[in-house]
Amino acid sequence: MAKRKVFYSFHFDNDVFRVQQIRNIGALEGNTPVTVNAWETIKKAGKKAIETWIEDNMKFKSCVIVLIGEDTHNRPWVKYEIKKAWEDGKGLLGIYIHNLKDPKTGKCSKGVNPFDQFTFKDGTKLSTKVKCYNPSSSDTYNDIKNNVEDWIETAIESRK
């Protein structure tokens, strides 16, 4: 099976090392990670530059994976990416990554479901339509590695 092209949405400052572990699984073709310096340059250029970067990097991806750490739900650009992914009809899912160890800070607390913040006109929350996976706390990496492709296919299929 060809590797799926995915876009990773996450809190850069807190979770970049956890996210790098997922990128290294190699089962997926994800957006190339932006360096700290490049991200700072984009941020200094303003809101429109950030939106353009997100749009350019989300384009041609079939699925958006929100990698959920302790504070992911508070990040404005994660919210923007979730909204855009949903409006663009992309597969969308969340994976809790709090049990992956960061080499500097270790594990973190489980974050809030970021899809709970979006409500449709009929009062239904986006979290009822988008699945968040909570991998095993004892073998988080392998749980993600062994299941992420199926989770993505399920997310893409749910949008058809």
UniProtKB/TrEMBL annotation:
- Note the Pfam families from the entry: ThsB_TIR
Q: Which residues form a coiled coil?
A: none
- Ranges for domain Thoeris protein ThsB TIR-like come to 7-102
**Could you name the domain of life of the organism this protein comes from?**
Bacteria
- What's the protein here called? TIR domain-containing protein
Q: Which organism is it from?
A: Draconibacterium halophilum
